Amino acid sequence: MSKPKVGIFGFTGCGGCQLEILNLEDQLLDLVAAIDLVHFTEAITEHSDNYDIALVEGAITTRHGVERIEKIGKIAKIIVAIGSCAVNGGLNCLKNLYGTAKAKELVYGDKKDWIDSIDVKPVDAYVKVDYYARGCPPNRFEIVDIIRSLIVGRKPEIPNYPVCVECKRNGNTCVFELGMTCLGPVTRAGCNSRCPNSGSGCDGCRGLIDEPNVNAQKDLLKKYGLTVEDMVDRFNLYNACREKNIAEKVTGGN
Amino acid sequence: MAENINIEVSPVSRVEGHGDLVLDVKDRKVEKLIFRIPESPRFFEAMLVGKNWDEPSHITSRICGICSVAHTYASIKATEAAFGIVPNDMILNLRKLIFHHEIVQSNALHVYFLAAPDLFGVGSVIPLVETHPEVVNIALRVKKMANDMVRIIGGRAVHPIRTVAGGFTKLPAEEEMHIMRDMLRGAYPDLEKSLDVLKTLKIPDFERETEYISLSHPEDYANYDGNIKSTDGWEIRPSEYLTKIKEKVVKHSTAKHCWAERDAYMVGALSRFNNNYEKLSNNAKSYADELGLKAPCYNSYMINIAQFVEIIHSVDDSLRIIEELLDEGMDEERRMVEINPGAGRGVGAVEAPRGLLIHDYTYNEAGRIEKANLIIPTNMNYGNIERDMQKLVPGIIDKTEDEIRLACEMMIRAYDPCISCSTHFLKVRLINK
Q: What is the CATH code for A5-152?
């Protein structure tokens, strides 16, 4: 692909992923020069419905959103989901856990029927997603790497090993030792273990690796006197839509 | 000249989130003028119910990527107020420091990237890369400086990690304090050049006096803390916000409109400037002077200039804070204060870049949230934006449809609305019944 036409599209979320693209300060002008940015409502007035690559931020939470994402699916040759909301539904899925009907009732009272809000789903529930830039917020350099890879025609390298690998490499004290819960052992790396680097446990915002080591996780829970609920609550922050049987997956069903 | 106009701009670009402008003029009379918010609602109040006290600041930071530090601290302050926690001076100074740089980051993004293209007569910052490369490079450097400050203190620029109830999970190293000081000092030449450019740009004329509401503090140009103050002459503690601030549901919007003494009011940079001008650094005051911004100012287009003046103040005040922190030293022992969770209600009020932001939590005995209410700055501005446009349009009705459309869009953009924030909820309190 020589100079691809790129559109950036926002669905339900905080706008932070698009902001992370703008936060590429040192690389932003090179990035903008390497692509033909034809649609980016947050930053540009002109827009076009002719694009090759769609970068999609946010989860699908309304009927109107379903129509929009299906239209993008028909136009774009490649769809990249950026950020936890687009990739896994993200934090929005807490609404599903609470119950969409109940949430409408709580928040809108007797006006609840005015409101277009459906159960939250990630982008790939509606259209084929080719690449995923995970995380909340996503790693902006990973987004650049994915775009660069698409331009030069290679496959982007997305880690399929746990955050612990990066955390060890960064020489951090294990946060379990500091008395905190951490999802690093089962969460996909690629963030450079940024939460443990800051003295905080991993919240699993990048989702599970393909084959989490459940035995190691079980041992950890036992060793530090933690319960499955501790881990599940934590994991549900960003992954409640995706991983229905998360307790089983994280703990091997103990 | 336009006898009849039907303008629908959907969505308005260069604002955060999705908002539509609808304007119908018949026989030169405005029949309909609304700023419609169809952005999907997010139900954060429901998401927070049952959450343990250490989770709300991380959850609510995801209301908005651009003002995640403000949401984090409105949340932390609500939790700390509910548990009776009083942070120490070192923690407060670091909080004020990170707060300044979310404001610098957000104001810079708005002034240089979102609003300035209108003043240069182009559709985005991209054509400016060719025509005004120096301005674009300055914009990128100022924004990077502010983001790096937030990264050093908070662990990352969007959704900070280290900022928690009780203090910080990690402190910046002393060496990093020196790096921050150098970065701040290095920003002045760019800010001076920005001043020169801004002086050459024409801000549209407009005047409509309204009620201006912001935090106000006896010592600081209030960002992180203060009472809620109005130019209509009242001042209350944050916990009393419900006595003054009312909300209502409007049919064309998934975001509520707010009012206090009158039918609408303004929050944000211009309200802060009008209420707290005296607390600005002398340097910031002289920038305001050079740009013709005087308190009180009733031209909503000047919000952008007030945002730039605030950048100057934040850089000046950050240097003062860093000197204090360096004098006292980073003390690991004072990184966190003790937390004893329990039942109680707490209100946290801060100035987000776009204005007053309030989180109100009720906790149960176990330290889990029973009830949450969040009041968002952009909601407070919607009513005022519409009233500004209702005054603006009759005054420019002889212009072309394109010119009227642009003037209205610029008015909306001047407020720097953050629509993701404003639609995080929509609670019906049945005030109209």
A: 3.40.50.700
